[in-house]
């Protein structure tokens, strides 16, 4: 059963085709797209939403470019990931406000999500290339462990 979309019409979300290898790694596929091993994500939507969150976390954005792959907002909705498009775009703004949720801003929301996804895919490729003998889940676990240690030591409670 299709979920109700939060977009006024079905739109396309693009991601760089040059990072198909990274998406395949996250979805447990080889270069030919044949399933191998245990996937971290069952579908490309999950891998792209994850990449966008990595891009946001590391403030990595880049343009998608002309070699691009497409996923519709309806597909994100059917996988219950559509709101992440809005969330990533809003969290990435310097001054977030609810105007971002207006219908006339939908294209801008999607483009911002795409830029963070592209930046996250680029970041993930670097991490995977620096650790070629380790499985993707181990690489990601190390990446998050380092990020967690860095974040927890930097944050201090305010002096009340």
Q: Layout of SSEs?
A:
Layout: E1 12-16, H1 20-26, H2 44-57, E2 68-72, H3 73-78, H4 82-92, H5 106-130, H6 136-154
Antiparallel strand pairs: 1-2
Helix pairs in contact: 2-4, 2-5, 4-5
Q: What gross morphology would you assign? A: globular
Can you tell me the residue ranges where pLDDT is under 50 for at least 5 consecutive residues? Answer: none
Quote the average pLDDT.
87
Largest sheet: 2 strands, antiparallel
Subunit organisation of the chains: single chain
Could you spell the SSE succession in H and E letters?
A: EHHEHHHH
Q: What is the count of DSSP helices, taking H or I runs of 4+ residues?
A: 6
- What is the rounded distance between the termini? 51 Å
Beta-strand residue percentage: 5-15%
As for the number of domains, it is 1
- Widest beta sheet: strand line-up: 1-2
* Tally of strands: 2
Structural class: mainly alpha
Task: Walk me through this protein's architecture.
The protein is mainly alpha-helical and 160 residues long. It has one domain. The chain has 6 helices and 2 strands, in the order βααβαααα. The chain has helices at 20-26, 44-57, 73-78, 82-92, 106-130, 136-154; strands at residues 12-16, 68-72. Strands 1-2 form a two-stranded antiparallel sheet. Helix 2 (44-57) packs parallel to helix 4 (82-92), helix 2 packs across helix 5 and helix 4 (82-92) crosses helix 5. The longest helix has 25 residues, at 106-130. The termini are far apart.
